[in-house]
Amino acid sequence: QQEEDVMEAALFDLTLNEENRQVFEEIMMDLGTGILLFFLLVVFNHINTYRNRYSTSCDMLTYIKVKKAIAFVLGISVIFLSLYSLYDWAVTGYSVVSTGNDYHQPIKLVFFKDFFTVLVFVDIFLLIFSLIYVKSFDAIFKNAAFITSTILIRISLTSPRPLNIYVALLSVIVGIVTISCFIYFNKVKKMQPEVEDYTEACEI
User: Fold this and answer.
1) Strand, helix or coil at 111?
2) Which residues make Cβ contacts (< 8 Å) with residue 183, sequence separation at least 6?
3) What is the mean pLDDT of each run of 10 residues along the chain (204 residues)?
4) Distance set, CA 73 to CA 60, 93, 98, 103, 132 (Å)
5) Which residues, at least 6 apart from 40, have a Cβ–Cβ distance to it below 8 Å?
6) Of 120, 142, 149, which Cα lies nearest the Cα of 55?
7) Is residue 109 a contact partner of residue 157, using CB atoms and an 8 Å limit?
8) Mind giving me the DSSP string for 149-166?
């Protein structure tokens, strides 16, 4: 029993050395960030349910067709990008195993970095194209702010720790604040019956 206590004490001391402490802190930081991001996303989805009351309608068939076409192309691009990322990761992994070198590229950069880069350009194109139909600044502001959130997510993937955590949290907070402002603006607008020439806008 005394020998077991000594072994347990040695193991306990081993977990408290500087190297293991740093790894433990990083794991706890990632865990806390994941929980906080999940909570913020729940808040965003809850607030977003109220947007349907003020969501704008769009019957411009051209705009809808363009959005569907872009979504189709984006879906195909994601498939090819996934296959390419998997192939590149497998080749790099085989090279690392064969040569015995260290693999320094984080797993989050294998696919998501390129995916969010493509997504940013697609969102910007849709924003520019929607300017043909959008007649209200609140919809333009909302769409532009959502693009900013996407850009922040892309930046967080390549930022060093702990800056990547702050940027990721900021991206969700920007979305929450934006959708809250959009709902509040439309609520105020609904309370102004004298404004009758309001033109409803297409949303990205």
Assistant:
1) coil
2) 47, 50, 51, 53, 54
3) 45 56 79 91 86 54 77 85 83 75 66 80 81 76 87 85 89 92 84 55 49
4) 20, 30, 37, 33, 22
5) 169, 172, 173, 176
6) 142
7) yes
8) HHHHHHHHHHSPTTHHHH
Give the CB-side neighbour count of residue 176, counting CA atoms within 13 A: 16
Structure-block tokens of residue 111: 């696919």
Dihedral (Cα; 8, 12, 13, 15), 10-degree rounding: 140
The CA–CA distances, whole Å, from 202 to 119, 129, 138 equal 19, 10, 11
User: What amino acid occupies position 198?
Assistant: Y
Largest CA distance in the chain: 85
